[in-house]
Amino acid sequence: VIAYMDYGNSSYGHAVVGEISGNNITFGTPTVFESAGTESISTVFDSYNNRVVIFYVDTGNTYRPTAIVGAVNPSTNAITFGTPTASSYTQMLSTAAAFDSDNNIVLLASGKTSQGCMHAGTVNPSSNSISFANDGASAEEFNSGDSRCTAVAYDTANNKAVVLWSANSGAGKYKVVSI
What does the pLDDT read at residue 136? Predict the structure, then answer.
């Protein structure tokens, strides 16, 4: 699944399913997952629930980090989405996502010029939805300063995540986060 912002369609969020056969990829029809401007799109596969989670900044909703869950129909190369879930944070500039296969949760990191936050999301496959275990005051703040260009990875050997970001100085920073 490839998720992208379509400049030709008001920067709406789109996703398309690709099927690999040998050295070729055949794509299905693109589907709109957000009918508003989107930026900083990250996609992760939840292997426990067999769902795709797209994490993005919703420019039509005060730049809130938002997640949406999709189910792929492999026989038609189509994807069906549930309802988006927005974080309470606003004015975010970047997002990143990873899957914690030990705890079967989606890790979502977002950043802006004054803060970086981490959320844990649990996917409900029957409704194609996601709920954040920590939002608002309970979100894990990994940095209280400039936290642009976020990235996150999960380390299965240590059951920890590593979140990375860059500050306005251009310096790269990281933090190990316990799950």
Answer: 58
